[in-house]
Amino acid sequence: MAPLYGKETVMLNASTLECVWSARTRLGEGPLWCPERGRAGQLLFVDILGARLLAFDPESGATHDWPLDEACCWLAPRDDGDGFIAGLRSRLVHLRLEANGPRIVAAWPTPEDEPTGNRFNDAKIDRDGRLWFGSMDDAAVDASGSLYCLTGQQLKRHDDGYCVANGPAIAPDGRTLYHSDTPRRVIYAFDLAADGSLSNKREHIRLSETQGFPDGMTCDAEGGLWVAHWEGGRVSRFAPDGRLDETLPLPASRVTSCAFGGPNLDELYITTAAEERDAEGLAGGLFRVRPGVRGLSATPFRVKGCRNEKLQQEVTQARP
User: Fold this and answer.
1) How far is 281 from 301, CA to CA, in rounded Å?
2) Which residues 6+ apart lie within 8 Å of 36 measured at CB?
3) Is pTM, for the whole model, over 0.85?
């Protein structure tokens, strides 16, 4: 049984926290640092419920906000430099971010037996370029979600029985995968083998009722696991053994995800949600803090030579 954490131990210096963009996202998610964009890098993220793709340039302070024809849950870079692989509600697509905005150019095979009431949720690329992503019941009621892995064009279901599959994160050595079922307040750990197989599923962390629910996650270079607390108003760092190490309170109760960014990967960007939180002025904002540790650069998805003509052609133009 995983440890149950009901008390905080160490409080980060909240004075270093800043809201860099009051974007008012209904459901901000999927922060991704892109060092190749802009002069010194940009932070991309999505608003799932608002069907928006957003970008923040920390050097200039410029922001970009593109509407989408369909909700996007996350995006990850491709190893050929040709845009991103992105998770829409029920399909995986090749997305390019062009001068006039995002454009979907092709689609990958997607699960055929996902229930109609499900949608995709969070995702992460492991150190070998495999894409791990989860699905969830859009009403967050039924345990109909699964954990998938896409290797090139090969898609495999590795685990199921999730109500809201959330927050994949990969340990720095690539040997542990963390994944959560948000309504159960449980973060699982799996042993991740070199061939991409999972084993030894175990409860790694169980949050208490006062701490909210585990949402998006990321690992730092020292192996610490940073967890966003939905309805918990905080981000916490857990040591590799699952011990609560630090807690950072935020002025928004629905904290959704986090990712390291900046030229030195020493800035933690945090997304939040404004849905049903009208009284919280900074809910839905993008926050930044320098926590004193560095993160890991995002590993690109290994396309493995698959060509767009082998994929289902969509040529779906996003709204300008």
Assistant:
1) 36
2) none
3) yes
